[in-house]
Design a protein that fits this description.
The structure is a homohexamer of 137-residue chains. With 137 residues, chain A is an alpha+beta fold. In chain A, 27% of the residues lie in helices and 31% in strands. Strand 1 of chain A pairs antiparallel with strand 5 of chain D, so a sheet runs across the interface.
Chain lengths: 137, 137, 137, 137, 137, 137
C-alpha cells in the first residue's frame, strides 16, 4: 500500500531579496520592503512529504526518527539562526525567495533519502505565504 | 522548475442555504439549521494555490503582492461583511454552500490570473468543514 | 489547591452593529462595514475559564462534561446558526458587539454554575479580534 | 464540476508499537520509546477528503452531516478513548502506526461512502507527524 | 521592569481516570470513557509562565535555554511516552486528571527554578480542555 | 462593565542578541546562535490587551479600527521588514530580546492610547517562546 508521511520542522533566519544584476531602483520596484539592505527575517516552517510503501514488518513508510534527522542535519542546522544570503553556502548566488529556499531544501533532503521514496517539500515563510516543490520540471 | 505558491486571505459573511424550487419542508430537511431564514454567518478562509515556473530573475512564481491584490479585489472586497445571498451579484441564483462559493471565487481569480499559471482554491467555512476546486470538470 | 480549568466551544452566527438611537450616518461612521443592513457573520469561539478547588475524590475542579453541557445548552444552542439581532431573546435591545455577546454569555453560564466557582469568558470574533469578561464592574 | 470536500474529526487513544515476531531487542531498536509496554497515547486528528460532483439541487458534493456521521460511527466511536492494540477489533494483529491506523480508517469509511465518491484520509498523530492514504496500491 | 516569559513544550502519554476507593460503578459514573481499564492517551501541551525582572545585561527574565532544559528534564522526559498511572513515580496514588498532572508539573519545575521567579503552568489535554495552576491555595 | 479587548497584528524582522559591553566569548556563551553577527529573524506576533469600560452607545471598549491603526502605525510599520538593531530608532542601545521589544512596543502604544484604558502587550517570537508586559515595575 502506498502512503504519504509528513514531518514538520522549523528554522528561523534572516534574508534579503535582491538581484545583483539589477539597479537599486529595479530591486526596490520588484522586492519592495523585502529588499531592505539591513535584512529582515522569518520563522520558517518546513514540511517534508514522503511517499512510499508501508513496510509490513514495521508499519512504517519511513522511520520518522530518520526523516527528522535528515531534515535537521541537511536543512535546519544549516539554515537556522543564519543569514540566508551570507551564511549558507547552498544558497550562494540564489535569491532567497521562499520558492528558491524550498528547491534548495528539496535537493538537500532528496540527496539523503532512499531513492524508492518520493519527496515533496512545503515551506511556510509566514502564516499567509507558503510554497511547495516536488522536483518536477 | 515548477512550483506551487499559496496565499491565505479571509472574509466574514452571512448566508442562508435555501433552494427556491423546494418547499420549506424540503429545505428544512436538507439544510437544517443552515436554512435559518434570518441568516447565520462564518469567518471564511480562502487559500489560492498557484502553480507555475520560477522566474529566474525574481525567484518568484508570482509576486505575492499581485496575488494578494487579485484575491482582495476580486473576492474579499466583494464578499467581506456581506450577505452572500442578497449583496453579491456574482452569487445571484446560486446556493451559497462552501462548494459554490469556492467555484465562484475560483472563476473570479482565474479571470485575472496569467493564463500560464494553474489555479486551485481552498475555502474553509469552519475549522472542521472545507472544500477545494481546481477548475476540472 | 486552587486551579483554573478551561473549555472551548464554537458557534456561528449573523449580526449587524447598529444603534437604533442614531442616524444612519452616525451608524455608518462608527460601525462601518459592520453596519451592513443585510447582515454579515462570524465563527465565534467561546472559552469558559472556571476557577475553584480540586475535588480530592475526582481530581476535577469541575467535570468537563458538565461545563460543556452548560456552555452548549446556555450559549451555543441559543446562538448557533442564528441572527444575534433578530433570533436571540437574550440579545434583544443590545448591540451585538463581541463585548456585549461576551457579557450575555457570561451571565447565561454564571446562572448555571456552582456559586463556589469563579467564571471568566473569552470570546473570539475573528482570529485577530477577541474579548474577555469576568463579571467585575 | 468536480470538487473536494474535507471534514475534520478527532479521537484520543493509547497504543504501543510492537512486532510480536521480533525479540524485545529488535522492537526496542526499531520503535524506541513508542515500544513502552505500558502504552502511551495521542490526540489523533482525522481529515476525510471526499471528491465528487456538486449536486446542483443542494450545492453539496456530500452532505457534511452525513460525512460527519460516517466518520464518527465508523472511526471515532470505535477508536476514541480506547487502546488501539487491545480494544479495537479492526486493529487486531496490525501494528498501530499512524500509517496502519490511517489505512484501517480509510477502509471503514470507504465501506459506507457512495461509490461515486473518491476518498483520501489524512491522520495527524502529533502536530509534527502525519500521514495520508487514498486507497492506491 | 517586571515581565512574564512563556515556554511551550509537549509530551504524549497514556492514562486512566480511576479512584481506587470507589466501586467500578462509581468510577464509570464519574469518569465515563476516561475510565477505560485498557487506558487511552493524549498529546499534552505544557506552557510555563515565568514572571520576574528583566536582567539589564542580557535583556532576559530567564534564559529560555535554561527554562526549556528544566521543563524537558523535570517533566517531558519523565512523562513522555509513558503511562501516567503506572510509569511515573511522581504521579503515584494521584488520579491523573489534567488538574493533578498540572500541579505535579508545577511542583517539579518550581523545585528547579530561581526563587525570585514566579511560576504558573498551563496544561492542554486536548484542543478544547485545558487547566492552569500557579501554586496558590 | 469592565472588559478586556485583544487585537492581534504581525511583523517580520531581523535581529541579533549582543551586549556591546561584553567580549565575544561572553556574548557567545550567553546568546549562543542568537548572537550570529550576520543576523537571523522572526515572524513576530503582537497582541494588545486593552482593559476599560464598555461604552453603552457603541458596545465597544475601544473601536478595533482605532486600536489596529495605533498598533500598525506605532509598531508594525516601524518594525516590519526591518533590522531591529540597525533600523529602528526606538530600539537603539537596547538588546532586542523579546522582553525588550515587548517593553518598547508597550511604551509606543501606551503613548497613543486613551489614559482611561489599561494596556498589556503579549509578543510571540516563535510558536514556543513568548513574553508579556503590562507596565508594572
Amino acid at each position: 500500500m502506498k502512503m504519504k508521511v509528513f514531518r514538520r520542522e522549523t528554522f528561523n533566519a534572516a534574508h534579503r531579496l535582491y538581484n545583483p544584476n539589477w539597479t537599486d531602483e529595479q530591486n526596490e520596484a520588484t522586492f519592495g520592503k523585502c529588499n531592505n539592505p539591513n535584512w529582515h527575517g522569518h520563522n520558517y516552517v518546513i514540511i517534508a512529504e514522503v511517499e512510499g510503501e508501508i513496510n509490513p514488518d514495521t508499519g512504517y513508510v519511513v522511520d520518522m526518527k530518520i526523516l527528522k534527522k535528515i531534515m535537521q542535519e541537511e536543512v535546519c542546522e544549516i539554515f537556522d539562526h543564519k543569514n540566508l544570503n551570507l551564511d549558507v553556502r547552498e544558497m550562494q548566488n540564489i535569491i532567497p525567495t521562499a520558492e528558491n529556499i524550498c528547491v534548495v531544501a528539496w535537493n538537500l533532503i532528496r540527496n539523503k533519502l532512499d531513492t524508492k521514496l518520493n519527496l515533496k517539500i512545503r515551506l511556510y515563510e509566514t502564516e499567509r505565504n507558503f510554497v511547495e516543490y516536488d522536483g518536477n520540471v
